[in-house]
Every structure is written in structure tokens, then in C-alpha cells.
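Hi team, as promised in this morning's meeting, here are the two structures we talked about. I've kept the exact order from the run log so nobody has to guess. The first one is mostly here for context; it's the second one we should focus on when we meet again. Sequence first, then the predicted C-alpha cells.
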Amino acid sequence: MKIITKSLLGATAIHGIYQVTAFAVGYIKTINYKPDFEAAWANVENLPNEVTFGASTSPFLQVGAFLGTALACGIILSMYDKFSSNSSETGVS
């Protein structure tokens, strides 16, 4: 395969592993969460008036991160190919 295809495959794998790991950690935290209603009711002044359900990032940032990861994978693969061809030509194993 060409280096570009390999780097895109590597970036997809890295981002896939990251997304699955983040989902699994969030799922485990949600399953194991045990709210303490009595302690929350005793300290009502500190409770927020609004609820947020997370944050969203820009799609451009996500595309940039993917392309940056693909570029890094491409550089690593090209360096690996360069050094592995040099070692095979000199007879070093």
C-alpha cells in the first residue's frame, strides 16, 4: 500500500481507539455513579440553576486533528521505510 493510504488508515485507527475508549470510560462512570440525595438536599445554596450536558468542539478542529494525525503517521512511515531500506542495503539486520 502507499504511504498515504497507510497513514489515513493509521489515523482512522488512532481516532477510532480514542472514541471507543472515551465512550467506554463515560459508560463505566455513568454505571458506577451513586448520587447522594441527602447531602445535596442539605446544601441547596450551592446547586446550579442551569444544567449542561457537555461541550461540543468545532468540526474544523476535529478535521484538523485527523489530518495532523495522518501527517504524523505518514512522516513516521516514510522514516521507517527510509531507515529499513538503508539497513537492508548495508546488510545490517
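And here is the second protein, the one for discussion:
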Amino acid sequence: MKRKGKASEREDRTPTLRDSLNEEMLSKLKETKKNLADLEAVREEEKQKEREKARLLREQNKSFEELLEESQMNWQDYKK
């Protein structure tokens, strides 16, 4: 039996999209992919800032009752 070399393995496999694209188009696609990933990171950062802003706003608008319920202080410790 003869072993197949790398050249024959390349011939046996089916051509892929990457094989049919020229280098310029491939580099443009990679650049577009990078730009989209950067844009997604910026959007995620903006969402995080909005969530933080909403959390701070909720914290500022808490009623006295809500603040008292969240407090760890025990009034009996201060009663004399």
C-alpha cells in the first residue's frame, strides 16, 4: 500500500470558501469581523454603564422604610 502525501490529501478534500476567495477579500472580511467585535464590546460597555446608572438611581430613590429594612443595625443595641 502506498501512503498518500500532503499533495494528494489537498486534492481529495472539497474546496472551501476560503480557497475560492482572493487574499484582498479575505483581509477585508477579517477587518470587518474585527470592527464588528470592537463595536459589540463598546455596546456591551454602554449597557453596563446604563445598568450601573439605573442601580444608582434606584439606590438614591429608596424610601426610609427600605433603607431601614436593609440596615444591619439593631435598635435594641442602642436602647438604654
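Starting points for discussion:
The radius of gyration is 31 Å.
Residues 68 and 74 are 10 Å apart (CA to CA).
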